[in-house]
Amino acid sequence: SVEDRGTFSFDTGRLTWTRHGSWLLPFHGEAYFVRELDAWVGLCSHQKGYIAVCNVISPDDGLCECPTWTTVKDRVYNNRWKRYLAASLTYMGDAEFCLLETITRKGYDIFTESRTRMLLRLATFRVERQHSGEVRAVDMRTMLYKCPHWEMECSRSPTAFWI
């Protein structure tokens, strides 16, 4: 999805783009296809702190309505903290995810100090659809790590990859 342009898909076989509509998908950043849910999953752009789960559209659909989507019932991070900086999501397969979140340590201000002491919160969880149809983040495990002095630019966007 591209702001003010709409949502497109790219056919890697034909090397062509297809425009699906002027609507935007409900994700902040990258989203991932989760086979077990037959849906795209990513950080929600409408309700910060939550995961969005969006029905998949076919690249052959052409112009169509925005697909239905929902948020998981569980908040997975808290961007309302004054100390919150950024979060990113990495897909690990089998509907399992890793969320990285950077926050400042108590007593540090990113706007007045060039080297801010940071904390990295790492959370792993599985996204699953309940019998009721509700989508939940389950089996969540979290760890909090102290980070070395980082320059402000380095700490803004935590990134992980899964091999």
TrEMBL record:
One protein family per Pfam: DUF1668
Name of the protein this chain belongs to: DUF1618 domain-containing protein
Phylogenetic classification of the source organism: Eukaryota, Viridiplantae, Streptophyta, Embryophyta, Tracheophyta
